[in-house]
Design brief:
about 230 residues; alpha/beta; 11 strands; globular
Length: about 230
Amino acid sequence: MRIVAIESATPAASVALAEGREVVGSSQRVDRRGHVAFLVPALEFLFDQAGWSPGDVDVVAVDVGPGLFGGIRAGLSTAQALAGAVGARLAPVSSLDAVALRAATAHRKIWAVVDARRGEYAVAPYQPVPGGVVREGGVELVSAEAFRAILASDRRDGLVVGDWEALPESVFRGLHGIKTGRPRYPAADAVVDLALARAERDDLPHPDEVRPRYLREPDVRINWTDFRREEPWR
């Protein structure tokens, strides 16, 4: 199974090509405002290096969030365009799942964090299991203070991964049994693994059902009435 993976929900955009679980090429750039300019040229370069054509692709995997509004839109639009053009299946995955999957721990409860800006953070808990992780609860959009309270109320040792550096230092002060670790951002190779697992279970949605996961309203909204003058039809 040939998979194209696109990750652009966070400042670190990345793309990868994979034959099953074997990644045959990947590229990454950290620039929260440069996702649109990066994705297509990076994919074209990887196709050329791997000797693939778009028609060879079976599954296009994409991170649908939570994360940056612009980054999510850029990645999903690129994935939908490629999948639609070649008739490939579309596999949506979560940025939090991708971060947690690469967390290096055998026994600690994993807390994945994605900075959602405006003082809010998307978080979710995971339990490490052989070969991966299992999410233990829902995704929440919380303030730094609320996340500290969640960590303080959990009696188990925890590992916080993802964009924890964006949190105030006070979040971790005085908390025992809580460590921080890598990765900071989700990566396309993790998107490959998550998408392949869904494809093997035949758990891929219809393309029309794939939606971005923002968790809140956009930061900027267009007031269309400012651009439109109401007049009767002539």
